Amino acid sequence: MLLSVQNITKRYPGSDPDLPILNDVSLELDTGETLALTGESGCGKSTLLHLVGALDGFDSGEIHLDGKALSGLDDAARAALRRGTVALVFQQFNLIPSLTVAQNLAFHARLAGQEDPDHIAFLAERLELHDHTHRYPEHLSGGQMQRVAIGRALAVRPKLLLADEPTGNLDERTGDLVFDLMIELVKQSGTALFLVTHSRRIADRLDRHLLLSCGRIA
Ligand SMILES: Nc1ncnc2c1ncn2[C@@H]1O[C@H](COP(=O)(O)OP(=O)(O)OP(=O)(O)O)[C@@H](O)[C@H]1O
Question: Residue 193 is part of a domain; what is its CATH number?
């Protein structure tokens, strides 16, 4: 089991103690498996993704990622996890404006001390970015920017890719193309995917689909 979320409860400071944002949430994800999480706006989807990505803590329960209990990790260990085991793609592309496409693609892998030029070149080719590697993010389309963000995440060869509405800022046609490329690469590399989406159509393309409703898995 790559990911195990057990009975997680999460409140934000100032939120109603009787109405946790996440209430006794449990789920599991195997190596290489793809999972979609849908649910109405504000039900806690992004919150859950952030907890799994060790970006935020929880009140009770436990999350095991690749055999490690997240509650027991200090800040340095959380950061190390985010540089290797798990990678994130958000709706906002979050590219570094002062770096070229090639440098953005390599950025996280370089931080993790595992830059592999052949792998970066492979990703650039597969994501159809090879003609744009010397360009800067401000000169790219939204679809191109998100393909860079996906490549940058996959360049660290993560075991788990967390994606929060990765095509939410793109028109449907561009979003579908980007999504197709992401799924193809994820499947080919054996990376597990935990995807938050509003789209039932996209959710149905993954191995499994869970619905979050009022802070609980429905
Ligand atoms: N840092 C925070 N501090 C306090 N409350 C927060 C914080 N982040 C999120 N919330 C609240 O937690 C609830 C869940 O937010 P979350 O972003 O997880 O929902 P979501 O299901 O991803 O929503 P959407 O589909 O609209 O993106 C919301 O009521 C939100 O206002």
Answer: 3.40.50.300
